[in-house]
Design goal:
mainly beta; Neuraminidase; 3 domains; 4-stranded antiparallel sheet; 7 helices; globular; F-box-like_dom_sf; F-box-assoc_dom_typ3
């Protein structure tokens, strides 16, 4: 009897993969606890790891219940400086700078920030770029038609599909184009219908809806209103603003809703908040909060007129109002106001290096002047572009 060939008698063994040992859902739950830097290394381990980490399902899992970071942008004379800081778990009154990013030679006021991603236009306003502060990777998006300048650009996130989209207004007329990040798609025109408008700078994305301030006047001098853009359906709606909405304000998330908060603190420590209760009926709810009298004692050397040197910049996921100095300091800090307890706490931010300005002979002169442009307390890491 002839011996059986090895290829017939012995079943060829297949190497076990991670999916054979663990369900994909469990793998995602494990991966979501890892920092983005570690995920970047895992992509090189196997094609399966890469496909899991780059999937839209993992994007949704990763962004769920992530711990926020303090996300600073300071403006110098010629460029902008970006810091990300992590809050200490053992000491809630301290935060340390986790990363200092390259200076951006762009107008940081016109940048769009979401989940640690920064969207901005090139110096000649011909292209749109997206920088991931977690991976420190810069991606240039496809070019528009030649001679078409970028006027406005906003980042939006669809939490249901797990995708990021960039909405742009190009050209002198209000022509809007949109592109989905990461799927190789190109720009496509979005019809605004009856809502012809010219966007302004204030904007925020909440639960798959992009809100931004706009006006109907081409010269941007008319009455302002809020545009509501559904990132998933790519449709526009217009929301009227309350007549008492203040100009020096910021868009924030308050109890899951859009809110407009006054950046300026009154002399008696008061701050005004307008909450959008019903976008269809254009219903706004006005809330007035008064800071405790002891809040000025937390401020170093500015107790007499502290309200002039600080402004509200954000509301974190815990419902605390974030208050920060208007310029960077050698001993920088952030104040958190809890409206439910009517209490404040001070968090020292360690590791922010104040640039030094020198005279013509390179002798020490004084710390350079850096004004605070943005501070987000709920920014998280994003695995986009890994």
């Amino acid at each position: 009897m002839e011996p059986t060939p090895p290829s017939l008698g012995v079943r060829k063994r297949r190497k076990k993969t991670i999916s054979d040992l663990l369900p994909i859902d469990l793998v995602m739950q494990i991966f979501k606890r890892l920092p983005v830097k570690t995920l970047a290394r895992l992509i090189c381990v196997s094609k399966l790891c890469a496909s899991i980490i780059r999937s839209r399902d993992f994007m949704k899992v990763f962004l769920t219940n992530r711990h926020g970071r303090l996300f600073f942008t300071f403006k110098r004379y010629k460029d902008s400086i970006l810091f990300t800081a992590s809050l200490q778990t053992l000491n809630p009154c301290e935060a340390s700078v986790a990363m200092t990013h390259p200076a951006f030679d762009v107008d940081a006021k016109n940048c769009s920030y979401l989940h640690g991603l920064i969207c901005y236009a090139s110096a000649c306003a011909s292209r749109v770029l997206v920088y991931n502060s977690s991976t420190r990777k810069l991606t240039t998006l496809p070019i528009f038609q030649p001679g078409t300048p970028v006027r406005n650009h906003f980042l939006g996130y669809d939490g249901i599909a797990g995708v990021y989209k960039v909405l742009c207004r190009t050209g002198p007329n209000p022509v809007f184009q949109i592109m989905t990040l990461g799927d190789g798609s190109s720009w496509k025109t979005v019809n605004v219908g009856q809502y012809s408008h010219f966007p302004l700078k204030k904007h925020i994305c909440i639960d798959g809806v992009l809100y931004y301030e706009a006006c109907a006047d081409k010269n941007l001098k008319g009455t302002a209103f809020i545009m509501r853009f559904d990132v998933r359906s790519e449709s526009f709606e217009r929301v009227k603003m309350s007549g008492d909405n203040v100009k020096c304000s910021a868009m924030v998330t308050y109890e899951g809703k859009l809110a407009i908060i006054s950046k300026v603190i009154s002399a008696d420590g008061g701050v005004v908040l307008w909450v959008l209760e019903d976008a269809v009926k254009h219903k706004w709810l006005k809330k007035v909060f008064v800071l405790p009298n002891s809040w000025t004692s937390l401020v170093q050397g500015q107790s007499t007129a502290a309200y002039w040197f600080h402004r509200f910049v954000d509301v974190n996921d815990a419902g605390e109002f974030v208050l920060a100095p208007s310029s960077v300091r050698i001993r920088h800090y952030v104040l958190f106001y809890d409206p439910k307890r009517n209490s404040m706490r001070k968090v020292a931010v360690n590791g922010i290096k104040v640039p030094i300005r020198y005279d013509s002979n390179r002798r020490f002169n004084r710390p350079d002047s850096c004004s605070l442009l943005h501070l987000f307390s709920s920014q998280v890491e994003s695995p986009m572009f890994l």
